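FIELD: query
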Amino acid sequence: ENGIFWGILRHLLPGFWDIWGQFCSPQAERYPFKVLNKRNAYQIWETTPKLAVKATKIDRTNSRKTRMAYIIPNFCFTANITTSGRKPEEYFTTSPIEAQISPIIETSNVTDPETGSSELVRTRANKITWSLQVPTFSGIDENDMPPLKGKNYNETDGDFITYVKQPRRIIAVSDYNGSVQDKEAGNLRSNILNQLEKDGLKVKLSSDERPITGFMSFDAKVCWNK
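FIELD: result
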């Protein structure tokens, strides 16, 4: 078991199960949308109302290399799914996974241990918000859904998760093959916003007067069981 064959096999097995989970899982349910308009730089979609899980985590690293927005937090997962054996568990998958990154300023009180004096310190951070579509078989009433908050949930650290009813939306989308935290994603976002302004279209703003933008990953799935 210590030979080169087993050494190679141990490296191959995780990759095999990753591929199995992606391509042998049920076909992902995608929320319906209608293309209202096609432009050179973007398309205008109209999406239908749906129930989703909204999860938030604070990224205090201020680094693109951590790729925190690329991975759903552990506290979003609340159950195991049995996919092998005589009676594999029935489960469902949905896509895309939506992610938004918003810059924030955090304020903390720092005390000098020698003098006992304290001062307010302001630091930059990013608030990452994921939106995970709930399968349609569950309906759109969050009161009928099981409780959330899985492993490692820490509300005092800024973690937050809840069910939300997403209303009908009109969104501008453009193809992109990179990660949400790549520099190219920021450049593409700026180009789309500039083009929307040139075309005379208004973009919805957040509470801090910033355009609401996000990233939809269609190459990933979220698994749900009953």
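FIELD: remark
The mean pLDDT is 84.
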